[in-house]
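The instructor's notes for this session suggest beginning with a concrete chain rather than abstract definitions. Hand out the sequence below and ask the class to guess, before any prediction is shown, which regions might be ordered.
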Amino acid sequence: MKLYRVQANYKNIYINEMLEAENDKAALECFVKKVDSGDVTEKEGPGFYNPDHLFLTFEEVDRDATTKVNIGEASIGVQVGNTGVAAGKSND
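After discussion, reveal the predicted structure:
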């Protein structure tokens, strides 16, 4: 069995599901069954998509890789990189 991630945006509803299937077609059929049965978690969509169009993406996921990004937090005053312009005494 392969692991798939299926995402859908429609009418300002976002669905993001991870599921196992034998192939691409079976993954989409499994997703349809989960949506029809109400066995999915609906979240509020991003709001910038056309609500009259269905946006559907799916991908095979490597079980040994992560699919989430943890950016973390930076405290106030943390500087990243070199400054492009430095303040200093003018040439009067």
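Then share the key points. The radius of gyration is 22 Å. The chain has one helix and four strands.
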